Fold this protein.
Amino acid sequence: MPPFSSTTSDCVIALERITKRFAGHVAVSDLSLSVPRGVVFGLLGPNGAGKTTTIRMTMNIIIPDEGVVRLFGDDLGGRHHSARIGYLPEERGLYKKMRVRDMLVFLAEAKGVARATATKKADQWLDRLDLGDWRLRKVEELSKGMQQKVQFIGTMLHEPELLILDEPFSGLDPINAQTLKDVLVELSRAGTTTVFSTHQMDVAEKICDHVCIIARGRKVLDGGLAEVKHVHGGTHVAVAFEDGGDLATAVLGDRRLVAKADDYGPYAELALADGADPQDLLVRLVESGARLRRFERVEPSLHRIFLDKVGAEAAQPAEVTRA
Amino acid sequence: MHKVWAVIRREFLERVRTKWFIISTVLGPIFMIGITVLPAVLAARGGAPRSVAVVDESGGMLGQRLLTQLGTGNKFNATLVRVDTGGAAAALDSLSRQVQQKLLDGFLVVTSATVESGIAEYRGRNVSSLRDMALIEGVLRQVVVIERLTRSGIDPAVVQEAQTRIDLRTLRITRRGATGETGEATFALAYIIGIVIYMAIFLYSVNVMRSVIDEKQTRIVEVLVSSLRPFQLMLGKVIGVGGVGLLQFSIWGAAAALLFRYRQTVFGMLGVPPEQASQVQLPPIGGALVLLVIGYFLLGYVLYSALFAVVGASVNTEAEASQAQLPVTMLLVAAIIVFPVVLQEPSGQLAVAMGLIPFFSPIIMPIRYAVSEVPTEEVLLSLAVLAVSTLAIVWVAGRIYRVGILMYGKRPTVRELLRWVREG
């Protein structure tokens, strides 16, 4: 295993050339990746890319056909380290008839936490996420969003070193999504390593240190966020118009200046053509008579990189642009 | 072990807290009072004498004798109507009207031919009451026999003496000597033991199945198996649910014991005369029998709950389960089907064979032990076979379970199940 031996020791997760086939198709193919300690790691990819399969193999819930999964430097499997890992599966589930606090205490006990400690922690977390009044209610009486929050608490209650979250933001309203982001950032500052999968690039862009994009079971791109953006290269400009944006259409359509334009509504992200000077673009836009509100050289967005790398066809735009 | 304990605790507490548990625990003893007291109460109430008329067309002593016999024992309020052959039709019409007006329950018609042919006629509203008909028939037979004997010139006093009622009392003899148990009580006890073990195994192992399906359906199982080994999960579940069963049966057992001890008081409160109450008897229940019942229940429950856990793990919904559980249910039902045969012939070939087969022995052996003398070696052999089979089945079930709980969609075929066992 020469290619990995140097990094394995400080990696919390190391996947070494794992492959998983299901009847008729390859879900994950020859995938290697390593998650350094302490990072927030985004596993990105379109639907059906193999994110969930990868996560399940990492957790040792399904066994790879080929390759090795290492957690904390050994290959004993997720269950062996379960006390150090918090896992949120893609399919959420709680015992509907159980009371909220009993449910949380049980999940923590299944991780080996003592009852008294678990009870205390559960109360603290429930208060913090505004569920304090619901602790003695049955799970089924809670709204879907509240159940999600309960499940997050269940994932974190035993203070794991490593959080593995499969699509943690799906189905959350903006307020709960923000709460979750805050908690994740805070845990990350305290040293928790977090791996989460998503197809929401804006979320990934805000909180990830490290991203890995996979498509059709293969790794497309992997690295630190800044590094990925740097490598992606090119000159990118964000523009927004006060009014008269239609006057600029001809300028933006000039292929000698602008290679690609993504209109996000409030602003557009432009990838300039090779050798084009942003200064020239600014002059042309001013001359066109459109009134500019914003003109800024930016790094390419993760969204742009994702589209470029995965290809518009596989990316299913409706999913990707959901904010 | 701490983790298994958490599962046991959850399964136990969550069940004990349900309305279902509380209601069924309370209803159990009420049901017991019902089945023991109700017949006695009914017997006491149903004793209101029936008013019947005896229509005698024979012109002899037959009607008078019937009247006397029917009158003893307060069962009937009889009147005698003597008619000659000509006036019979009119008398019967008038009596029929009285029956319709509910002034009379019915009437018995005897003719001069009755003594020779033994044929008589009863018309009434209560012809469907087996008890009434049996009594009337009994009286009629007795009177006809006396009449025939008297005509043959036998002294009526001798006839009367010959008619004294016979009562066969059955007492069970075991190796330890006469037990004082009556045959009927022993039969009832064995019957109750069999039904209770059957019900308990069925109810609680289906509970295990439900719990498995619930975890699958809510998808919580994925979180659980990331923390626990599937076998730990299954083990905790089986023990937890079994604990609920033991608790419930301890409560019922204690209630039954109390009820039996204070039966005079309870019967008194319900207005049953003391002589009726003392008829309710139970053979003394030995410690060995209690141990045997508990042992067979526990092993049988573990065996069947492992099978039901497999059913649960291989389906997606409860609706699918009701179909998939059929083969397992059939095994249990088979034991119930041979039940009467075993009671009749507790040492017969069938009973001995069924007592050794692990799927049936948990129900069959305690019955056999309760009604007959089963050699100790046979009990030990049966227990050993059951214990070993249970271990093997739990092992196989565990392997299917751990694959099945993460599988959704199409139900696996038997071949696939076998592959899961091999590959584990």
